[in-house]
Write a structure and sequence with these properties.
The structure holds 2 protein chains of 2 kinds. Chain A is mostly helical. The N and C termini of chain A lie far apart (60 Å). Chain A has helices at residues 2-16, 19-26, 30-59, 79-85, 88-119, 126-138, 141-151, 158-167, 183-208, 212-220, 225-253, 257-262, 274-284, 288-318. Chain B is mostly helical. In chain B, strand 3 (274-275) and strand 4 (278-279) form a beta hairpin. Chain B is globular, with a radius of gyration of 26 Å. Chain B starts with a helix and ends with a helix. The chains are: A mainly alpha, B mainly alpha. At the A-B interface, helix 1, helix 3, helix 5, helix 6 and helix 7 of A face helix 2, helix 7, helix 8, helix 9 and helix 10 of B.
Chain lengths: 319, 317
């Protein structure tokens, strides 16, 4: 009986894979199998992420230009780094980036947490409305940027029409994408529209993770709703809010798609965030060495800031 | 207090609170939907209606946007157009009203097909590699496990443009530049880090005892993985796949920098649809709408997995 079932198992297996392969897989130790499972991922990441990064580091010390491959490459040392760090244009771009990150993250966090707090009240149909709210973040930032340029058109755009309708100004009197003071806000509005749902989702996860019994205990102690919010809800949800801030902060530091489509960095350089400067240097003026150095500076900045932030986050978590 | 209220737990919000919360959320949802609805309406407008002011909510539906999206046209003299036979198909007759004839198909369909192939190809690859590695990290003692996991995550912090130049040079050397395979591999490498982290969370949740029981029954480790762990991890795999697909479907920076024709996806293509005298807004809106449809349908169908996936990712970081 035992033999019979064992042999039927073997034939079953033989249907699945060729017997040679089956025997080989059977004979593998756990250790070999572990490496077999993990290696492809590591190899892929080494080939397409780490190798290019090391190459970028190498290029950042040279005068290489990708459009003039036959010019001999000269080792320049840290020349590019010095010129970038002392270049006022670069500092201006970094400032523009910082403003974007701060404003978008602030607006998205306040709105996102507020929405999550309301949705957590589990009103009728909250599932449906949550799904609708989530839609913008599923879209392509580039396509979103493109269709907002249509909404922002001064003569024909819906956005201008609505604002004009409520403020009584002429719709063509303000150019969201062409005005130096308005164009940064045009991008902030689109980014907030698109990514508030993301912050909302993470905050919602945080609110759902607070066990009911804490509120019940507070209720027994006759703590006011206001007090419950400040002493329970906010501190318990704080690690999640901070996480959302981290994710949005990293993403918006790299912001490229939307800005490229909405303003392309203009008017002037009022919306020229770091990625746009980088793209211009790398793919328009083909200063490969220079742009590599700038890319490394950006990467180190994100990595450093993220690390400091994660330390703070862990402190909050362990509290 | 009536018995009706005491039946609720003290943490249940009151009916008034719920109504208040509900109306605020609904208001936000409606405002958020307006741009999307507007772009979908614009897809069915004629070019004149699309640029009229004040914006038209009521209009005569037209398929001109879709025709302009799918075809290229050339301007002809009225005499020449009269000398032609009857118009061939709907788009030709729309074009002839504007003194044009259909010259051929546009590039939208090939770009859309590229998007499909690259997004689904990289999703399948990333999920497959991610599942294997996640299992490896979850179940075996791997040397330097934490360092490897952090290394995998840190690859996601790189700005795409930082690695775009060397990838461009590398792809040019090995002949992968502007190919679908190149883009699939690239998106897979970006997605795989997320896949490993999400799936490790899900696989950690599956008790080891299941596989151990299967192995006592005579299964090998590999069979136990395929027949016991994989079915248990389906929800996690689905959630991960959605995230990978959304990323690959929407990606723009790499696509615009590394592809020019062959392997170009739809996101870099849609903004450059130009009609006579600037952007052809109905055509752009039509292209956008078609591009959004798969992801919107997908989101609505799979929203439960999506919520679960995000929650897991957030809790486990």
């Amino acid at each position: 009986m035992n033999e019979l079932s064992a042999s039927s198992q073997i034939t079953y297996r033989a249907v699945m894979v060729r017997p040679g392969v089956a025997r080989r897989i059977r004979g593998l130790s756990d250790r070999t199998l572990a490496w077999l499972f993990i290696t492809p991922t590591i190899v892929l990441l080494l080939a397409i992420n780490i190798f290019p990064l090391l190459w970028t580091i190498y290029l950042s010390f040279t005068n290489y230009r990708a459009n003039r491959a036959n010019v001999p490459t000269i080792w320049l040392g840290t020349d590019w780094y010095q010129s970038i760090l002392t270049d006022p244009d670069i500092w201006a771009a970094m400032q523009v980036t910082a403003h974007f990150v701060i404003w978008t993250v602030l607006i998205e966090t306040v709105l996102g947490f507020g929405l999550a707090y309301l949705i957590d009240k589990k009103f009728r149909g909250h599932g449906l409305w949550t799904t609708i709210i989530l839609l913008p973040m599923m879209l392509s930032p580039a396509v979103v940027g493109n269709f907002w340029t249509f909404l922002y058109q001064p003569q024909i755009g819906l956005f201008n029409y609505v604002v004009a309708f409520f403020t009584g100004r002429a719709a063509s009197s303000f150019q969201m994408l062409g005005d130096v003071t308005l164009s940064p806000w045009a991008i902030v509005i689109v980014d907030a529209w698109m990514w508030t749902p993301y912050v909302m989702l993470i905050c919602l996860a945080g609110l759902r993770s607070i066990p009911d019994y804490i509120y019940e205990a507070a209720e027994v102690d006759r703590a006011s709703k206001w007090r419950q919010f400040w002493s329970i809800t906010l501190p318990m949800a704080l690690p999640f809010i901070m996480l959302a801030v981290l994710f949005r902060g990293i993403e918006n530091f790299k912001m490229f798609d939307m800005v490229n489509l909405l303003t392309g960095g203009g008017p002037g350089s009022t919306t020229e965030v770091a990625s746009i400067t980088l793209k211009r240097a790398a793919f328009e003026s083909w200063r490969t060495g220079y742009s590599s150095a700038f890319a490394i500076i950006l990467f180190v900045t994100v990595f450093g800031l993220a690390n400091i932030y994660v330390k703070a986050l862990n402190k909050v978590k362990s509290r | 207090m009536t018995s009706a209220t005491t039946a609720h737990s003290v943490v249940e919000p009151s009916a008034t609170t719920r109504r208040f919360a509900g109306s605020l959320v609904v208001l936000y949802a409606i405002i958020t939907m307006i741009p999307l609805v507007w772009i979908m309406l614009t897809a069915f407008k004629s070019p004149d209606d699309a640029i009229s002011y004040p914006p038209k909510v009521m209009f005569k539906p037209s398929l001109e946007g879709f025709c302009n999206l799918f075809t290229t046209r050339s301007r002809q003299t009225p005499e020449f157009i009269r000398s032609l036979g009857p118009p061939q198909g709907l788009c030709d007759s729309i074009a002839r009203d504007r003194n044009m004839v259909v010259a051929g198909p546009s590039n939208y369909v090939p770009r859309f097909v590229n998007s499909l192939i690259i997004a689904f190809g990289s999703t399948v690859l990333a999920v497959a590699l991610g599942t294997l590695s996640a299992y490896g990290f979850s179940r075996f003692r791997v040397p330097l496990k934490d360092d490897l996991l952090f290394f995998i995550l840190s690859t996601r912090m790189m700005p795409p443009i930082a690695v775009a130049i060397p990838i461009y040079l590398m792809y040019r050397t090995i002949g992968l530049s502007d190919t679908r395979l190149g883009m699939i591999l690239l998106y897979t490498s970006v997605n795989v880090s997320l896949a490993v982290w999400l799936l490790k969370g899900f696989i950690d949740e599956i008790p080891r005892e299941y596989e151990e029981a299967a192995m006592i029954d005579g299964y090998t480790r590999f069979q136990a993985f395929v027949k016991v762990v994989l079915p248990q991890a389906t929800t996690g795999i689905a959630a991960t796949a959605i995230f990978c697909l959304i990323f690959a479907w929407n990606e723009y920076a790499f696509a615009v920098l590394l592809t020019s024709g062959n392997a170009q996806t739809a996101p870099p293509f849609i903004p450059i649809i130009i009609g006579e005298g600037g952007q052809d807004w109905p055509a752009v809106a039509a292209g956008t709408t078609l591009f959004l449809v798969p992801i919107v349908v997908f989101t609505v169908l799979l929203r439960k997995h999506l919520l679960r996936g995000i929650t897991f990712g957030a809790v486990r970081k």
